[in-house]
Amino acid sequence: MELLNKRILQDGRCLEGGILKVNSFINEQMDPEMMSHIGQEFGKLYANCGVTKIMTIEASGIAPAIMTGLYMHLPVVFVKKKKPKTMGETLNTTVHSFTKDRNYNVCVSKEFLTSKDKVLIIDDFLAYGNAAKGMLDLARQAQAKIVGLGFVIEKTFQGGGEMLRKAGYRVESLAEVTSLDDGKITLK
Amino acid sequence: MELLNKRILQDGRCLEGGILKVNSFINEQMDPEMMSHIGQEFGKLYANCGVTKIMTIEASGIAPAIMTGLYMHLPVVFVKKKKPKTMGETLNTTVHSFTKDRNYNVCVSKEFLTSKDKVLIIDDFLAYGNAAKGMLDLARQAQAKIVGLGFVIEKTFQGGGEMLRKAGYRVESLAEVTSLDDGKITLK
Questions:
Q1: Which domains does chain B have, with CATH numbers?
Q2: Residues belonging to chain B with any Cβ–Cβ distance to chain A shorter than 8 Å
């Protein structure tokens, strides 16, 4: 996605440890118009695939997921990191967060992820694929079908995309970062 | 907002302890088209007020905030509950969550909330006003100006709205729940 690639090269910064910082438009401050273009792009890529539900994980997945849901006219279910006391029965799994360096117990409402659902998973980053694995596990527990996964930015050198594609999943990433070596962002 | 009032009466449920459960379209599963209407409504209410930035708090504030940002053509800065190791200098405060029954240390990037900003705070619920107070404290630390606050649903009987209005803030709530007594949702 040309617009996104340009923006990453213009505003992105490399941090130590293979981290790409895109805080000015994705994960500390968000650019709603960019997110809207991102939603349209996922909507085009997964048009006519029978998707019935978008799934994402809080917090930075919500913006691209809600925009995708808007263009696909579909509800968005989101995986939570803390179970609020208002929440009924849940499906649960564990996810390791690379940027926060800890494990999370995450959960999703049983009411909104069921065996009738054909799910498109949307998230901001694909790195090692930990959050994606967690969401796939929740879908497996619900016996929901996975249509595919969509990521705003994939860091191809961290292997999550390879792992998911080898497992047979359709993975669409709008920007692919192939290297952050020597403080330089290289895109595919 | 008529569409929202109808949806609350149709899909909302009362839980014990003054909790309104609107999990099917706001905080476990989201309805992107409803969120889009909500964003347009806030955009109209705060048109021509000089707003330069939308501020919200993760996670359920993100969807209404990003839609408001889309219609107002403004960036959205979001307050985080955990500081990721990728984040630079932050402003920090503490927020008590009523539905999760705990205190959070929350933070926002210093880079994206500054004395130049004229801020519109957007969140899903206004109950006791704890999250709003936290965001107002962060804006005060940044010496940003507050133009106003917008909430999808205000529970007027929990006093947050009264507290904020008495303090001189403009508060716009798209739906006002005046009572949840006897398991019945009463709207203004």
A1: 2-187 (3.40.50.2020)
A2: 15, 19, 21, 23-25, 27-33, 35-36, 58-59, 62-63, 66-67, 69-70, 73-78, 80-82, 84-88, 99-101, 108-109, 111-112
